[in-house]
Design goal:
The chain is built from six helices and 15 strands. By secondary structure, it is of the alpha+beta class. The chain has one domain (2-266): CNF1/YfiH-like putative cysteine hydrolases (4-Layer Sandwich). A hairpin with a 4-residue loop joins β1 (2-5) and β2. The longest helix is centred in the N-terminal third of the chain and has 15 residues, at 51-65. The protein is globular, with a radius of gyration of 17 Å. Bound molecules: zinc ion. Zinc ion is lined by residues 179, 181-182, 239, 241-242.
Length: 267
């Protein structure tokens, strides 16, 4: 990961760092105005913080990155596999209030320049996908449920079927999330993984008496399954719980955490 802006602190992937046609950014919890357990750059609306502070953090990130604040678009994430299309008509949804975020949506696709689509996370996996030839951008929010439903794969397939994208031209950044190191799962999750993945050898691992899930590999595998080249996929390799000073982690904060996330903007 490479630093994009220092205040607020944001990163990008090596895969995207030199590109002039797209901006992909990962936000952190540093450099904002949120207080106490939400400190300091929470970008998710939260009952424990006034919306003005959350919106100010969002605005400061946009200003630091030189992107159009008014066209930054948010969704109401529900751990399902519904995908929204964002254009000039619905750009900016959910920016100032939670209620008008794109409903019932865990992924967004846009072909429109200067619209930023943003996926929020705090242990779930935020993912950015970009087709370098068709100039189509997507973000995905994938917790274990979305990962099992293969929302990242479904989003890429929608880009291929409806927007003429090609797996060979797709670049993928898999952002910080709870890592295999910290993600112990129970039998229900293990069953779902076994039912939905042909080869689970890289996805599920025994750690002593417990079983750990690797969400990064599970999302990477489902993208390789549809022939996105492995070399086109970059994993941030940062566990949110191990790096709770840098990212929000729902598990580390007992569910009372703020949100960071991944944004993508066509330039
Ligand atoms: Zn960890």
């Amino acid at each position: 990961m490479q630093i994009l802006s220092r205040v607020p602190l944001t990163y990008t992937f090596k895969l995207f760092s030199e590109r002039k046609d797209v901006l992909v950014f990962v936000t952190t919890r540093l450099g904002g105005s949120s207080q106490n357990h939400l400190a300091s750059c929470n970008i998710g609306f939260n009952m424990e913080e006034s919306a003005e502070i959350t919106v100010a953090n969002r605005r400061n990130i946009c200003n630091a990155l030189g992107i159009d604040f008014e066209k930054t678009t948010f969704q109401q994430q529900v751990h399902e596999d519904y995908i929204s299309i964002v254009d000039l008509k619905n750009a900016g949804s959910g920016l100032l209030q939670k209620e008008n975020a794109l409903p019932h949506s865990d992924a967004m696709i846009t072909t429109e320049k200067n619209i930023t689509i943003f996926a929020q996370a705090a242990d779930c996996v935020p993912i950015a996908i970009y087709d370098t030839k068709q100039k189509v951008a997507a973000v995905v929010h994938a917790g274990w449920r979305g990962t099992v439903k293969k929302i990242a794969q479904k989003t890429a397939i929608k880009m291929i079927q409806e927007f003429n994208c090609s797996p060979n031209n797709m670049l993928v950044g898999i952002g910080p999330s709870i890592g295999r190191c910290c993600y112990e799962v129970g039998p229900d999750v293990i069953d779902s993984i076994n039912q939905n993945f042909a080869d689970t050898s890289k996805i599920i691992q025994q750690h002593g008496n417990s079983v750990h899930l690797d969400l990064w590999e599970a999302n990477k595998c489902q993208l390789i399954e549809i022939e996105i080249p492995e070399s086109n996929i970059e994993i941030a390799q940062e566990c949110t719980k191990c790096n709770a000073h840098l990212y929000y982690s729902s598990r580390n904060d007992n569910g009372r955490s703020g949100r960071f996330g991944i944004g993508i903007t066509l330039l």
